[in-house]
């Protein structure tokens, strides 16, 4: 039986849904029940009545789904799919930052472990980071772990934030000279990029936003050629949704190795064997849920 049919059969047998992040390979996007960013997918995970969720993404995303829906079985098809950005901060480092900045609110990007979320006041995604920090008014804010996103939020709001020197190696490695080179080859193109890129790259952009915002910008812009400053997996979806437009990666290095670990075979194995479950200890889960609920409020 072709693997796609087998996945469908096992999905029905397990009463499962397949949630797929925008950065996943094209063949995984094609089997998605829902495709989106981590916030969209966590909301889907919480609202579905399926018993099992196959989360095609990286570990912190599956953890976030579990934090919101502990009664469901959350499967991560490749348990090694981690996030180097999330790994840049430990609980001890965060506690030290908190003790050095008494009274500051901690805003953690969704790309963090459950243990870090449990130590934070409110979570955010690239979709809502500016809004979440704005909501905190004049209170001092520790923003972790991505210093590029933190710097972007700080510049948008004209507010100093306490930052941690973490970054996403995929986005942080994009160089201004590479982007200028692509721009010079496509002089009529517009440039959109993720706020996890360095500020010098963001300064060259026509649009800055998370993946959902970029998908919307691409649909709405009148430009026919769009240079894409985020993980290349999204270009598959961009092309499918905008067949009359051309999408060019801002850098050939925009590939997240972890996002590419998921394969059709691993999705099938996850459904058959159900042995790649992601769970979070209950004391950490309830505290982390507080930070996520504060974001969703
Ligand atoms: O929030 C997400 O899903 C991430 C990590 C990126 C984005 O902008 O969608």
Give a concise summary.
By secondary structure, the protein is an alpha/beta fold. It contains 15 helices and 12 strands.
- Given helix and strand content, the structural type is alpha/beta
Helical amount: 40-55%
**Order of neighbouring strands in the sheet with most strands:** 2-1-3-4
Instruction: Count structural domains.
Output: 3
Note the beta-strand portion: 15-25%
Bound molecules: (~{Z})-2-methylbut-2-enedioic acid
* Strand segment count: 12
pLDDT averaged residue by residue? 97
* Overall spatial form: globular
The name of the CATH superfamily of the largest domain reads NadA-like
The rounded distance between the terminal residues' Cα atoms is 46 Å
Please give the CATH architecture of the largest domain.
3-Layer(aba) Sandwich
What is the number of helical segments per DSSP (H or I, 4+ residues)?
15
Please provide the ordered H/E string of secondary-structure elements.
Answer: HEHEHEHEHEHEHEHEHHEHEHEHEHH
For the CA atoms, what is the radius of gyration?
Answer: 19 Å
Low-pLDDT sequence parts = none
Output the CATH class name of the largest domain.
Alpha Beta
Can you give a write-up of this model?
The chain is of the alpha/beta class. The protein folds into three domains: 102 residues, 3-Layer(aba) Sandwich (Rossmann fold); 82 residues, NadA-like (Rossmann fold); 79 residues, NadA-like (Rossmann fold), CATH 3.40.50.10800. Helix content is 44%, strand content 15%. The chain contains 15 helices and twelve strands. Strands 2-1-3-4 form a four-stranded parallel β-sheet, with helices on both faces. Strands 6-5-7-8 form a four-stranded parallel β-sheet, sandwiched between helices. Strands 10-9-11-12 form a four-stranded parallel β-sheet, covered by helices on one side. Helix 1 packs parallel to helix 14, helix 3 runs parallel beside helix 4 and helix 12 runs parallel beside helix 13. It is globular, with a radius of gyration of 19 Å. It starts with a helix and ends with a helix. The site of (~{Z})-2-methylbut-2-enedioic acid has 12 residues, from helix 3. The site of (~{Z})-2-methylbut-2-enedioic acid (CIZ) has 12 residues, from helix 3.
